[in-house]
Amino acid sequence: MRDYINRKSVRYQGQIPVEVKQGMGLTRNFSTSGIYFVTDQPVALDERLEVVMLLDYQHIGQRVRLHCMSDVVRVEPCDELLGVAVAVEGCRFELVTEDVEPPRMDGGACGHA
Fold it and tell me: Is the pTM here over 0.70, yes or no?
């Protein structure tokens, strides 16, 4: 069993739609240093990915895209999807100017730290 006490940052549970490659995913947990999500996209260990989360911007009622450049550190089967853990190397925010609804995805029952 892994020693999760020694992680770089605290993990938060939450299901946030993400854009991954040409498809979608759904977060299970995230922190400032990593994201765990499920996706139907093929992903390989050590692959460099841009993971994009669509978030609500609290103060002006507008949405933002959080673009995270990440390195894949774990890939595992998750029902008919893949569970993917990434280490986040850097992020940037982008204000969304068009009216965008977050995509819907059934993430299955998988998801752990």
Answer: yes
